[in-house]
Description:
A hairpin with a 6-residue loop joins strand 2 (70-72) and strand 3 (79-81). The chain is 53% helix and 10% strand. The relative contact order is 0.12. The two termini are 22 Å apart. By secondary structure, the chain is mostly helical. It binds zinc ion. Zinc ion binds at residues 62, 64-65, 69, 82, 84-85, 89. Residues 62, 64-65, 69, 82, 84-85, 89 line the site of zinc ion.
Amino acid sequence: MLPRAATATLTAATHGSDGSDAAATLTATIHTAGQVAAVALIVTIAVAFYLFTCLVWPFGKCRRCKGVGKFKSPFGKAFRHCPRCDGSGLRVRLGRHVINHMRAVRGAGQNSTSKGDK
Ligand SMILES: [Zn+2]
């Protein structure tokens, strides 16, 4: 359940339109090479900072249950665990998936226990 959700999140990241549209309009307004370099530097710093925060704080609230981890029944005190996060209320942040992926790729050649299916 969890690896499938992670793949879906990564697919959404590569094909998502939330960031690419803004980047397209940004590049359309830029003309000189100096501006391009400055923007590239800012973007690199922002991405590095985001990845750093994902390294230190890898979890966010589960979006389905808003971090509660369970859904209450309207009757009595019954509840069920959130199927998305299995009751933990946690969501692995997107940047952390990227970090995990980079670690898995880097360690694939060194680690004898890795699957190495690529
Ligand atoms: Zn949840």
